[in-house]
Amino acid sequence: MINEKQLDRQTASPPSSSKSKQPASAPARILGRLFGNERELKTNLSLLSMSLPGVVLLFIFAYLPMLGIVIAFKDYRFNLGIFGSEWVGFQNFRFLFGTDAALRITRNTLLMNILFIGTITVCALVVAILMNEVYRSRMSKYYQTMLFFPYFISWVIVSYFVFAFLNGQTGLINQWIDALQIERIAWYRSPEYWPAILVLANLWNGIGFSSIIYLAGILGISPELYEAAKIDGAGKLQQIRHITLPMLYPMIIILTLLAIGRIFHADFGLFFFLPRDNPLLYSTTDVIDTFVYRSLVELGEISMAAAAGFYQSFVGFLLVVGANWVVRRFNEDYALY
Amino acid sequence: MTVTTSRQQTPMNRYRLQAFLGRFAVHAVLTVVGLTCLIPLILVVSISLSDELRLAKEGYQLLPVGFTTFAYEYILQQPGQILRSYGVTAFVTAFGTIAGLLVCSLLAWPLARKDFRLRGPLSFYVFFTLLFNGGMVPFYILVTRYLGLKDNIFVLILPYMVTAWYVLIIRTSFAQLPTELLDAARIDGAGEWRIFFQIVVPLSKPVLATIGLFFVLRYWNDWFLALLFIDDSSMYPLQYLLYVLMANINFMASNPQTTGMPIPTLSARMAMAVLAFGPALFSFLLLQKYFVRGITIGGLKG
């Protein structure tokens, strides 16, 4: 049998084979020792050059901003830049946590995300179980389409939808309220309604996506389990309670834990466009991300924005790592790393 | 159903009837939920097809009041800014998707190769960006002050080109390619680049199609980068234009081309929204199954 190396030599193109016979230079020898032989070196160099554009882009747009978080500890002046600006220790943080805003944005971010995780998980599970019951029906494709399309609509456009429902004079809901002859509600001036509005919008947007993931999980459950249960006389509800849900528990717990890892990051578009950046609604709709944006771009309070951003990145990182640690203890296959 | 009739039935029939009623109930619930999801869409389309004066008087209704396509005619007669924004979005989406797919898959291939020495460190380098990010402030300062990309069309493209999540999904798929084919190509003297473009890419069309769709969607629906970095209205992408129109009703009126005409703000605004999500929705309907597949691969094992 001819081994691969011999074949290589036979079929290698003439220029490269003539090159390989030349005595290698000193750096090539060192590299050669590292990579075994010249062929392996060439392969590795080719692969490295392939990864280069991606590596450079990640370096610029992901890693440089990571280094840039040091501005949270500086008094940033645009003309001095990041390096020229003065170090001020924790002053920006003292400033941030001295305001009411810090408590408000932390509370809103956490509470709204908890509401989102809860509503999406429960509703998506119900939908997935129902979809599974009629999975073979022709209609199931249409149900999926109707539930899934909102995921592809940007928050800007959703803000138009919400505006069509809620605006004071012409909005659909207020027309309905008129029909019932009760007093109109000024939705865009009543912060107390917004948690519910945002939960509904988020549910509308995300239920299709999450139910598809859970449906995939249900379809992966062995049919034999259901057969056995049927023979033992279990009804549909009992099958759901004693087979479907227990089999999905690992998935539910893992997806929830990963969502908890992201609990410090709010969906900026949802919280920025739907309430239309309305100061009257900040008490329930202002989250860390909208606060950072507003401080940075609209108010120009860069130090404040940087401190809030660092707070988010730092706590967010701890939460992701913590959540992943828990997931790993639970089931290594599902961990992020 | 009375007790006597159900006693007369055999257990099998009763089971069938129950199953039928159960399925009927499931269909009913899913239909109601599905149609409820459609309501916002119907509402906005109806408003866009309604008569402006009647809208102002009667408010928004679920069905068009005084059916007219005037809002669309109005927009399409004065296409300046909209056409411009469509062009920007189309360019960004096309360029970004192709370039992004190329760069992501080129990065994913070495990560899928067991014989690549830097596989471990490089995987971590990509993966770490999922765990930690610097946030908006350093990103904003980097782009505006150090890269000088403000009001540059490429600022709408470059930051999204490499997304760790996509790279990892493509890598997973690449790693499952049969190695025999690659070995055969290597024996025939093909270089790594040639193997990648002539074997790996053609064999991975399904995953590349799925990720390509995610790229299309991401660029088509993006407003974030424009919100941060674009001030020049000739470079507004579609979604950002919609935001500006919502935030400032007079933006259309301030457009010199539209002066001297009554502006159907109520209906035209919604017609704009329809024109913006229309193409995205249409392509979604055509390509839904690829998205579903992408979610089930990406959602379960990144």
Describe it:
The complex is a heterodimer of chains A (337) and B (302). Chain A contains 17 helices and 2 strands. By secondary structure, chain A is mainly α. A two-stranded antiparallel sheet of chain A has the order 1-2. Chain A starts with a helix and ends in a 7-residue tail after the last helix. Residues 1-21 of chain A have low confidence and may be disordered. Chain B is 74% helix and 0% strand. With 302 residues, chain B is an all-alpha fold. In chain B, helix 2 crosses helix 16 (265-300). Chain B contains 16 helices and no strands. Chains A and B meet through helix 1, helix 4, helix 7, helix 8 and helix 9 of A and helix 2, helix 3, helix 5, helix 6 and helix 7 of B.
Count of helical regions of chain A: 17
What Rg of chain B do the Cα atoms give?
A: 26 Å
What do we call the CATH topology of the largest domain in chain A? MetI-like fold
Profile the largest sheet of chain A: 2 strands, antiparallel
Q: Percent range for helical residues of chain B?
A: over 70%
Report the CATH C-level class of the largest domain in chain B. Mainly Alpha
The CATH topology of the largest domain in chain B is given as MetI-like fold
Number of helices of chain B: 16
Distance between the termini of chain B: 52 Å
Q: Give the total of domains of chain B.
A: 2
What is the CATH H-level superfamily of the largest domain in chain A? Answer: MetI-like
Topology diagram in text:
The complex is a heterodimer of chains A (337) and B (302).
Chain A: H1 4-11, H2 14-21, H3 26-35, H4 38-68, E1 74-75, H5 81-84, E2 86-87, H6 91-97, H7 100-133, H8 139-148, H9 155-166, H10 172-179, H11 194-219, H12 223-231, H13 236-261, H14 268-273, H15 282-285, H16 288-298, H17 302-330
Antiparallel strand pairs in A: 1-2
Helix pairs in contact in A: 3-4, 6-17, 7-11, 7-13, 8-11, 13-17, 16-17
Chain B: H1 3-8, H2 11-48, H3 52-58, H4 70-77, H5 80-112, H6 119-131, H7 136-146, H8 158-161, H9 164-174, H10 179-187, H11 192-203, H12 205-220, H13 224-229, H14 238-247, H15 251-254, H16 265-300
Helix pairs in contact in B: 2-16, 4-16, 5-9, 5-12, 6-9, 10-11, 12-16, 14-16
